[in-house]
Amino acid sequence: MPETGFDLFAAARQEMIDHGFDPDFPPGVEEQLAALKTQAAPEAGGEVHDLRAVLWSSIDNDTSRDLDQIEAAERVDGGIRVLIGVADVDSDVAIGSPIDGHAAEQTTSVYTGIRTFSMLPEELSTDLTSLNEVADRLAVVVDMLVGGDGSVSSGSIYRALVRNRAQLTYNGVGGWLEGTSGAPAKVGASADLEAQLKLQDEAARMLADERRRMGALNIDRVEAEAVITDGHVEGINARKKNRATELIENFMVAANGVMARTLEEAGVPSIRRVVRTPERWPRIVELAARYGETLPNAADSGALNNFLQKRKAADAVHYADLSLAVIKLMGPGEYVFARPGDEDQGHFALATHDYTHSTAPNRRFADTVTQRLIKSALAKRPSPYSDEQLNSIARNCTLKEDAARKVERVMNKRIAAVALQHRIGETFAAVVTGVTPKGVFVRVLNPPAEGLLVRGQQGVDVGDQLRVKLVSTDPRRGYIDFAG
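Request: output the structure for the sequence above.
Response:
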């Protein structure tokens, strides 16, 4: 329990319950897990290719234990062949089983900073179905050719037995790719792995260039990340994009596109991930006008991205607030049921018409469902879900994703309040992020935290930079108060 006496663990659990989640696994899960732990090791053969000799690696957060995907690449005629191996969760989680039933209800893992409430039991998500280093695991492989122009062709999907050779992190690989730090130990010890990652980065940059040409948004958000030691909040750091996070993002977008197109071509109903054309586009146009920029009357993701990148270059301090405002005006993504031939609602932020979620089945139920659909299509079996079931699953996934965001937002505020409690009386550089009837809100730049300006708020406006003193924190309510 943190020093304040406020139990963040209990608070996180209660938030889960209050927002419609069940933090406990139901009866029958332990028995199912016990059976899974005694099953034979996975083997190649038949429709399962043996790709353990491939130099696979994974890149994820420093603390990640649920490894959903691994990557590999090779230079071939016509471009770079990219392989994405996705954890074959379906092989261990049968439809209608106790574990599947719980996952279907929860639909997502919830990351509260102080504790992860996993959609699957951790014995699965961090072990049996996690693509852990030097472990033989079943995977669904997306195999695609990235051309010199960033186009994706020759996409195919198949099952395989794989072995992750190196579990790497965004922080370790990102700085090395950018030339600001040395190679991570595992990379420095292997010339082959070093060459492999540089080839992956080359392919990802080509994909990024093509996405940019198509009008995809590149919003560089700064997110707060709690530093937790033995259950105690030590502080909060800013987590930013880097070359490694962009590498994985570009690979996942491309893989999800291949998956969506493959299901469409197979004539299989599916669940798509969409971000609709913003209904509040006129408000985004007004926002741009404040900065002397003109956006077209019709929603245009490319024009919006150009505006955002221009503002980032001109004013990096306020860019985070501008990008957050744009994200809120665009509205959240959602899951929708789609039949082959239906008019595609598309993904405005990614500027793509073919998109599904398929690369994180350990932590998103929609991805597990997509995996089952593609495996049935590959085996030429009937779909394991009816249209009505898919429609219901899509709606529940959207609802639970929204609930998860609310849980995580509340807990992030509480964690920030705990992290700052010992710094009362200190002064910080801040920027005004909101002037509302409820009060004036400011964002402290280092450490990243937001709070209410309770004194000295007269005459300030959104965007103003000022020095503020921390006067109080209230972890129970997630309040942080500053004085100008």
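The radius of gyration is 23 Å.
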